[in-house]
Amino acid sequence: MKRLYYLLSVALVALALTGCNMFGPTTEYTATDLQGKWTESDNPLCYWVYSLTKDDTGEYYWGKTWDESDEVYESDLVEHGNGWFKWSLSSNTLTQLHVLEISSALVPKTYTVSSCNSSTLVLKDTYGKTISYKKVQ
Length: 137
What we know:
Largest sheet: 8 strands, antiparallel, barrel
Distance between the termini: 67 Å
Radius of gyration: 21 Å
Mean pLDDT: 86
Structural class: alpha+beta
């Protein structure tokens, strides 16, 4: 009898684990969800633009960022130089490759998209810092 109870409890645990997601639901986002111009909630003069223009490889999209509180404006950016980045989105993982103008090296940054809708974007970096954005256009 004990053996039957043991087998039933193991079966119930196995059934419960397969019937739920132990790590919570993962929302999948698409590139069109990020498309547009965003401003940081903590620094409304810092802008991020996610475009749907692909790079030469076709693997990444182009984006650009500037911070007017540092007296850097969109007109100061040289196409595909400092302030530009390549980006891709897979499920809820955002990868940015920031372009260094002098060497053309790419500096990678990875974020988890916590939420994204038509007016707000929330990212979490690899250190656990949360960054919030508001859509400008």
